[in-house]
Amino acid sequence: MADRFYELHVAGVTRKLPILNVNDKLAIAGFVILGDVELVEKAAAALVKRVPPETEIMVTAETKGIPLVHEMARLMGMPRYAIARKSVKAYMENPIIVEDRSITTKGKQILVLQDEDIALVRGRKVLLVDDVISTGGSIKALEELIEKAGGTVIGRMAILAEGDAMNRKDIVTLENLPLFDAQV
Ligand SMILES: Nc1ncnc2[nH]cnc12
């Protein structure tokens, strides 16, 4: 159990986030939207107001971006969105794969786009959606994946900008989330 917490105010909701070490120097306030209906709905409603009008398709990477992009698509009346997966499944034909590194996962990960989703993004203007943008590694990998698939990234959106991402001008976010020193 964490003994430090960060009180986050975003999109009209307040959540007490546990501060947990990710290595011996760095700690993060864990922000998990999975299962939190109120937070997902309110954050999606706030982000939808700032979606670039030229957006043709939204894309997220599994896992935590999925409920958010689903609710955004629902509010916008968009019948489809695409999900970059973290592993190749038996039902994927000719998937496109890129490497990804994230602050919350040790070692390398991959991002995979399956054929139906490749067809959805090819030749289209793509908005990337995620729960948190932190080191930027995941959003960069997602961007690389979309470009490989023949899509054009026209925007990047997340609920929170964490750490250095707070200074980025190329992302739209609702609030900032600080990083913390590890406590040993
Ligand atoms: N603070 C955080 N909580 C949960 N997932 C994250 N991914 C990047 N930063 C995160």
Automatic annotation (TrEMBL):
One MF annotation (Gene Ontology) recorded for this entry: glycosyltransferase activity
Q: Which Gene3D superfamilies match?
A: 3.40.50.2020
Supply the alphabetized keyword list.
Glycosyltransferase, Transferase
Tell me where in this chain the Phosphoribosyltransferase domain is found.
Answer: 41-165
What name has this protein been given in UniProt? Adenine phosphoribosyltransferase
What species was this sequence derived from?
Acidaminococcus intestini (strain RyC-MR95)
